[in-house]
Amino acid sequence: MGTYAFGILANLNRDHLERNVLSTMGKNNCSKRIEELQENTRKALKRALDPMAAMELIDTLQWLGIAYNYDEEIGLWLNKLSTWDSGEDLHATALRFRLLRNEGWHVSVGTSLIYFFLNRVPS
Prior knowledge:
Distance between the termini: 57 Å
Radius of gyration: 22 Å
Protein name: Myrcene synthase
Domain Terpene synthase N-terminal: 25-108
Shape: elongated
Strand content: under 5%
InterPro entries: Terpene_synth_N (IPR001906), Terpene_synth_N_sf (IPR036965), Terpene_synthase-like (IPR050148), Terpenoid_cyclase/PrenylTrfase (IPR008930)
Helix content: over 70%
Structural class: mainly alpha
Order of helices and strands: HHHHHH
Number of domains: 2
Oligomer: single chain
């Protein structure tokens, strides 16, 4: 298929989308739905989630590239996470470390933690 034909198909698809999908949903309904989803996400971040669930949600928001919409809520969680002890959970420790470091927090790796995990590796 040539570029010309692809361009026509792309335009047809866009026209179809604008005529059929957006007209049935309405642009206002899309905006309302987006605002509703953003508010639900804010509520989820503000609720008393356990730290692991909060870190996974923050990680997902960053991966999707929409974390900037929740800077205030994420900042509150990062403050909590800076003093949270993840114990012996390697996944929680690594995720906490990465989230805090990505946001510019000074986080010590902690040599005792490294030795703890290295000593648990089977020989």
